[in-house]
Design brief:
It contains 3 helices and 6 strands, in the order E-E-E-E-H-E-H-H-E. It has 91 residues and is α+β, with helices and mostly antiparallel strands.
Length: 91
């Protein structure tokens, strides 16, 4: 993964806010994945147009006081890609 990569949600997942859970979730045919607040903020920005660097910059502006935010974002992107929740936009 590099900062110029562009990701989107994998086709078999749907991202949405779940009132009953009070968090963002990824829905898929076999179930649901609850996302913490930070993960939801990252995933909702993966629109197939923004680079990882764009997302890092957006979140740094939105949450300027969070230490090591870039490391957390990169870690989440790597986890989401490893779990196949997201795919590169050109896939």
């Amino acid at each position: 993964m590099n900062h110029n990569d562009i990701y989107r949600l994998a086709p078999h997942y749907r991202f949405q806010w779940e009132d009953a859970q009070q968090c963002h979730v990824l829905l898929f045919p076999e179930g649901m994945i609850k996302l913490n607040g930070g993960a939801g903020e990252i995933i909702k920005r993966m629109d197939g147009k923004k680079t990882v660097a764009d997302i890092v910059n957006e979140l740094k502006q939105a949450f300027p006081d969070v230490p090591d935010l870039e490391g957390d974002i990169i870690g989440m992107v790597e986890l989401a890609a490893e779990k196949s929740w997201i795919v590169k936009a050109d896939s």
